[in-house]
Sequence to fold (430 residues):
Amino acid sequence: MRNLFGKVVGLFFTTAAKQGYTALIDQAVVSGTNFLTGVLVARLCSKEEYGFYVLAFSLVFFADGIRNSLVGSPMVVFFARKSPEEQPSYIGAATVIHLIFLVLSGTVVAAVGGAVRLAGDSQLAVTLLVSIITVLGYSSREHIRRVFYAKLSVGRALSMNCVYSVLQLGALAVFWYVGELSAVGALLIVGFTQAASSVLGIVLLSRGNSFRKMHLREVLSSHLRLGGWLVAVSLLYTLAEGYPWFLKLFQGNEPVAVFGACRLVPNIINPVMTGFGMFADSWTSHSFSREGKKGLKRVVIEVQIILGLIAILFAAGVSIFAREILEIMFAGKYSGYGLIVAILSIPVVLRAVISPMVAGLTVLGRTSKIFVATLMSSIATFTVGIILVWKAGILGAALGVVVTGVISGCFILYFYKASMREVDGDVKTA
Fold:
């Protein structure tokens, strides 16, 4: 028993884990900035206006999910397999693909905003159109950050994100002081400050990265083969996370604001979940390239243990003190929703267990399996989930998030175990 305990504790002090802690600090900067931005907007704006902000940011996350599927995740997988001589050219080609994506994503968001305007909701339409700037800035910074993670240069990502954090929080503080902060203003600040911090990263990445037409075609083809399924997954994931829009449809903007505020509380753990998770994606890819099936299996289990223990403790604490946390964060504006926060903390634990297996399936090239799992959760959202929202409002939305998470997790577990059985120990194929 002592040996087992010692091994578990030792996982927290390996070289890879120490690099992971740098990733945690980096994610703490990013998540902390986003978290404080969300809290400020929720506290200073009316519930109706904050509802618009929540809906607009759902498009920002949607667009960045597509970017990560088409560029970010494949880059982490393929970069580890490139020779040192090939890596600069590869990064250059991936960056060109990212720039093409920026144009397409801006066009799509503009089309959505136009459609909403034609439907008669001019205020939401304006907010969505402004979010185009947010999408461009957010996606650019995240792309550069992903490049640094692919290179396992987490410290450089941290430096860039510190610049962005100072710029964004400083701008928000000024607007808050003069009393001019609004949802639209916050979206503009996020977009411009993240774009500004990305400029330095783009300049640094351009040094030594050659651009060859033939290599660009090869990279685009390989990304589409692997990322095509991931793009479909992102589309389905957006559908599976459509609860704010269901609330907007059935009950209006204020329930959207309440749901968004309650979801901010579990987001406190994002520095751990997302930061260590992003590093774990690169970690699994490098381990599989070097050690095959054995290395991949070991890393997945180690990440599950580390994230699982942290997530369970966090979810328990949030559930116990949910009311007090809401009171402190939002100055009483969203009091009385402690049960909603407690329910929404359950997916944190699910994510800790599921995300390492998703990374493993991606490295193995089984992205079609991730698609099937996400499809099942999307079907649940548009059957069980929409009924729950219709009948129980905000409570139904919270329960729906848990239901879709459990369904997705069950399928991911099944597909991961099946895929690992299909891979030979010394074979390192996609």
